[in-house]
Design goal:
408 residues; alpha+beta; Beta-Lactamase; 2 domains; 9 helices; 65% helix; rod-shaped
């Protein structure tokens, strides 16, 4: 037995959106980290530029013999070098170290030591090479700044790439969510709407295929179950309506038959006209394959066929005048009610016209008036049948009317 695992609609949407959300979060985190690197590099560039300014300031102090201000300026320069070396996370300020930047920073440190030893610790009397040494040391600082800026340009390019990636992830995620929303929400809702419209238009066989195992799948099962119940109720109601219609039609046909027989009895001008009209009405009202009307003598020993319909000519001639008890037709002491006789059960010694004509069932109804047997009506069917109570009642009413009409 296969058990379908239920996955809710919320879980499917979350699974669809989670990868893009994680990628977007990662991209944002990388963007922030690169931005932090750029901020720290920019502060390092500013600090290195400040060192270049301090170098020219120290050179100016030496040339003007401002010996009292030199210790403070030297200390400030030392703090700048230490700041670049150690960084400051609070600002933030840090040098984006690589091999080239480390090499240039080492040259700046060694150049500073040489510059300080030559011009700041014990300034010489001759200052002819001060400008050249200052320019050379400033060039080392410029090289350091260029190295930091080159590194920052790469970080800037990476930042732009991350921003583009974030936009691409957002667009792709939105597209996937739209597609997933259509696949898991709009399409099932559309199928359900179509099925509802079909049922409203009268197509009770409309069903919704369960294509998913989420809430819409459960909704499809519920809708199909409801549609099955409606269809079953409609079929049951339709069957009841058809049965009631058939019952009303049958009652109408019986009333029409009774009315027509009554009218026939009142208007018939001869016994032959009455008999022929009667068998015609019986054949139409009860849908028989053959019918005959027999009338007996005073002693009920012979039965004369007054009229027939649907019987072969040889049967009509052979049974025109039957002796009592000669076959299942013409039995004076039989039951006063209608008798249903399977023709196959007839004794081989009796008349066999019914079997030869292909009839399977004989229904014999006595015509009685005040407990006296006046004749009988015989109905012949090519199939095995069983008369309903309403058909029996109709036959008895028709024969009673006939007996009264014949007597009068």
């Amino acid at each position: 037995m296969n058990v379908r695992k239920f996955r809710g609609l919320g879980a499917k949407l979350a699974l669809s959106a989670a990868p893009f959300a994680l990628l977007a979060l990662l991209s944002v985190m990388l963007t922030l980290w690169v931005s932090w690197q750029l901020d720290g590099g920019a502060a390092a560039v500013n600090e290195a530029g400040r060192m270049r300014m301090q170098t020219y300031r120290l050179s100016l102090m030496v040339s003007r013999h401002e010996q009292d201000a030199l210790p403070g300026a030297v200390e400030a320069f030392e703090r700048s070098i230490a700041l670049l070396r150690n960084g400051d996370p609070e600002r933030p300020l840090f040098v984006p170290w690589d091999d080239a930047v480390r090499e240039r920073f080492a040259r700046v440190e060694s150049g500073w030591q040489q510059y300080r030893k030559t011009w700041l610790d014990a300034p010489p009397v001759q200052r002819r090479s001060l400008s050249a040494d200052t320019a050379a040391f400033s060039a080392d600082i410029d090289a350091l700044v260029s190295g930091i800026e080159a590194h920052m340009s790469r970080w800037t390019a990476l930042l732009h790439l991350l921003q583009l990636a974030t936009i691409a992830i957002a667009v792709l995620g939105a597209s996937v969510l739209l597609y997933v929303g259509y696949l898991f929400i709009l399409e099932p809702v559309g199928h359900l709407k179509q099925a509802i419209e079909r049922i409203q238009s009268g197509d009770l066989g409309a069903r919704v295929e369960r294509a998913t195992d989420d809430e819409f799948g459960t909704l499809a099962d519920g809708f199909n179950g409801m549609a099955d119940q409606i269809q079953a109720m409609y079929r049951n109601l339709e069957a009841k309506v058809n049965a009631k219609t058939a019952e009303l039609q049958e009652k109408q046909e019986r009333l029409e038959a009774l009315y027509e027989v009554t009218s026939l009895i009142a208007t018939a001008r001869s016994l032959d006209e009455l008999a022929q009209g009667f068998v015609g009405y019986v054949a139409h009202a009860l849908h028989v394959d053959g019918v005959s009307l027999r009338w007996s003598d005073e002693s009920n020993q012979r039965y004369l066929m007054l009229a027939s319909q649907g019987l072969p000519a040889y049967m009509t001639e052979g049974e025109r005048c039957l002796k009592a008890n000669e076959c299942h037709c013409g039995i004076p002491d039989a039951s006063p009610n209608a008798r249903i006789i399977p023709i196959r059960s007839m004794t081989p010694g009796g008349l066999q016209y019914c079997a030869e004509a292909g009839f399977e069932t004989l229904v014999s109804v006595p015509v009685r008036l005040k407990e006296r047997v006046m004749g009988e009506v015989d109905l012949f069917f090519h199939a095995e049948i069983d008369l309903s109570p309403s058909a029996r009642s109709l036959l008895e009413a028709l024969t009673t009317h006939l007996a009264s009409g014949m007597e009068n």
